[in-house]
């Protein structure tokens, strides 16, 4: 199967690092991100948050750790014959740092696609992706709506989605994801 995989929050454990840096920059003490729109959590204008990310993108995208189990889960899926295609909301200007982070983290990567701030649906269709792994419920819903099953990795900012639309399966961790893909593939 062709498996689409988001990066931030799914492979790169970006949010804990970002929260630490945002707390320092904005003089806050936020402990948990409860909304994917981080500017709301930090109570700052979206433009201020965007300026922070643009001005610090190299460090913010290169320094995070790996989501626990992601590297092993991806390696397992590759060994089982699946093709991994990363589809990230990052911009094409962030390609170099993204690929360097994947290489530094020793995460298998051949195809990395950048949707920027656009929907991932067109890339999912264009690349004929069979299943997708995501953390942002809005992306998950859009992808599931075109008939592509989605595994939604549980995060602090997607737990308010108690009832998920058809085609989305909530997963606690990468072990759940790998098992779900095996069941889907059998």
UniProtKB/TrEMBL annotation:
Residues the record marks as active site: 6, 8
Keywords: Hydrolase
Keyword presence, Isomerase: no
EC nos: 3.1.3.-
PANTHER family documented for this protein: NUCLEOTIDASE YQFW-RELATED
Similarity remark: Belongs to the 5'(3')-deoxyribonucleotidase family.
Protein name: Nucleotidase
Source species taxonomy: Bacteria, Bacillati, Bacillota, Clostridia, Eubacteriales
């Amino acid at each position: 199967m062709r498996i689409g995989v988001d990066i931030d929050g799914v492979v790169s454990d970006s949010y804990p690092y970002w929260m630490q840096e945002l707390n320092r920059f904005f003089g806050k003490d936020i402990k948990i991100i409860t909304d994917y729109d981080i500017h709301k959590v930090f109570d700052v204008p979206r433009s201020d948050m965007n300026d922070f990310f643009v001005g610090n993108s190299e460090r913010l995208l290169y320094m995070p750790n790996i989501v626990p189990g992601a590297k092993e889960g991806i390696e397992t899926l590759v060994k089982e014959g699946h093709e991994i295609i990363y589809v990230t909301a990052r911009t094409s200007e962030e390609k170099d740092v993204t690929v360097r982070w994947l290489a530094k983290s020793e995460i298998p990567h051949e195809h990395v696609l950048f949707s920027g701030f656009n929907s991932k649906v067109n890339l999912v269709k264009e690349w004929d992706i069979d299943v997708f792994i995501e953390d942002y419920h809005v992306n998950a819903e859009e992808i599931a709506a075109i008939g592509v099953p989605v595994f939604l990795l549980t995060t602090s900012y997607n737990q308010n989605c108690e009832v998920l639309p058809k085609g989305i399966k909530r997963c606690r961790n990468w072990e759940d994801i790998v098992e779900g893909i095996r069941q889907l593939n059998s």
